[in-house]
Design brief:
Distance between the termini: 50 Å
Shape: globular
CATH architecture of the largest domain: Orthogonal Bundle
Structural class: mainly alpha
Number of helices: 12
Radius of gyration: 20 Å
CATH class of the largest domain: Mainly Alpha
Helix content: 25-40%
Number of strands: 2
Order of helices and strands: HHHHHHHHHEHEHH
Strand order of the largest sheet: 1-2
CATH topology of the largest domain: Cytochrome Bc1 Complex, Chain D, domain 2
Bound molecules: heme C
């Protein structure tokens, strides 16, 4: 393991208590821009054959992912990766499993151009939307201009900035309501800290702020050989099998798990993490407690979903 990595893990552990902060209750967004972004998020005309929208693969009410092992795009083409959630994605330091998009705006252009996702391109989308007087008017109101590619991604990103899920029972606990979670769940949180899960899963999103290798403490690595993660961006041998650590908010609702979507249950995900990331032999008592703790992370639906 690289020395720097070791140092990061150790310092994280030392300061583990302060490492998770609650999701903000009132996010500040440009509401008109965000609502235009919301309309675009559900817009099937963003895809080549008008069959797929962002929401096809990111179902907000069901955890912000598609509950499939790997995503299916236009013409039922299957990708090779499990869709991460869009909920709380604004807290990620970069976007995608390999971190190739530096922010949500850059990310949004990805699926539109991806031949197996939406198979279109922003220029074509602009042309399509310009045919619709409703859109022309909305863009004029928000950007005081004609429809342009960067306005589309900017509006979608603003909508995503509003996709936060505050007030989970755990967040209430963090804010001082000591009865918001049960003793049993609290014991799960203690294990989450003492075992060192928190060294990788921390920050507001309990993840999403560093790249980590899958299978660091197990010789026989648990690795999907086809997908090399961060290596695809840096071409640095040392980055093979490093992925953006996924956030754990609403984790109960986002099965199946891992970049490959191979792991069906939360229980199994926790067991594998103990074994492969921490070198601890999983025992059912601890696994159940941690699982119970993770289920306290379900937050409220983003307020913007109620607005038109
Ligand atoms: C065909 C299914 C599909 C469609 C359509 C789709 N996505 Fe995704 N989305 C995915 C998959 C799969 C990934 C992970 C890809 C990767 O990491 O390379 C992803 C990743 C993301 C991420 C990064 C989250 C993270 O934690 O890294 C965001 C944000 C996102 N999508 C938003 C969108 C938006 C906005 C649209 C519409 C413009 C969209 N998606 C359309 C499947 C889809
Ligand atoms: C060394 C860093 C590290 C440690 C320690 C760690 N994880 Fe992870 N965790 C990751 C990475 C990286 C992934 C993504 C793996 C993949 O996609 O193949 C992940 C994935 C997960 C997932 C699946 C998330 C999803 O959306 O697919 C869960 C659940 C999880 N970890 C829980 C835990 C728990 C519980 C512990 C402690 C027992 C723990 N992790 C310890 C880095 C870590």
């Amino acid at each position: 393991m690289r020395i720097t990595l070791l140092i990061i893990l150790i310092t994280n552990l030392l300061f583990a208590k302060e490492l998770i902060s609650p999701i903000e209750e009132n996010v500040i967004v440009d509401i008109n821009k965000a609502l235009l972004g919301k309309k675009l998020f559900f817009e099937k005309r963003l895809s080549k054959d008008n069959t797929i929208s962002c929401a096809s693969c990111h179902i907000i009410a069901e955890g912000g992912d598609d509950n499939k092992r790997v995503s299916e795009g236009i013409n039922k083409k299957k990708g090779s990766l499990n869709a991460p959630t869009v909920l709380n994605s604004k807290y990620n330091f970069v976007q995608f499993w390999d971190g190739r998009a530096k922010n949500l705006e850059e990310q949004a252009a990805g699926p539109i151009h991806n031949p197996i996702e939406m198979g279109s391109d922003l220029k074509t989308v602009v042309k399509e939307l310009k045919k619709d007087p409703g859109y022309v008017k909305r863009f004029r109101e928000v950007f005081n201009d004609v429809i342009k590619p960067n306005y589309i991604t900017e509006a979608i990103a603003e909508f995503e900035n509003a996709l936060v899920t505050p007030n989970s029972r755990f967040d209430k606990f963090l804010k001082g309501d000591i009865h918001a979670i049960t003793e049993y769940e609290k014991e799960g949180f203690e294990l989450f800290k003492s075992y060192g899960c928190i060294s990788c899963h921390n920050g507001v999103n309990m993840g999403g702020n560093l790249f980590q290798k899958m299978g660091i403490l197990k010789k026989k690595d648990y690795q999907n050989k086809e997908y090399l993660g961060r290596y695809n961006v840096t071409k640095d041998e040392e980055d093979k099998f490093f992925y953006k650590v996924p956030g754990l908010r609403n984790i109960e609702q986002t099965a199946p798990y891992f970049h490959s979507g191979e792991v069906k249950t939360l229980k199994e995900a926790v067991e594998l993490m103990m074994e492969f990331q921490l070198g601890i032999k999983p025992n059912s008592k601890s696994v159940e407690k941690i699982e119970a703790f993770l289920k306290t992370l379900n937050g409220e639906m983003p307020k913007i979903m109620e607005l038109k």
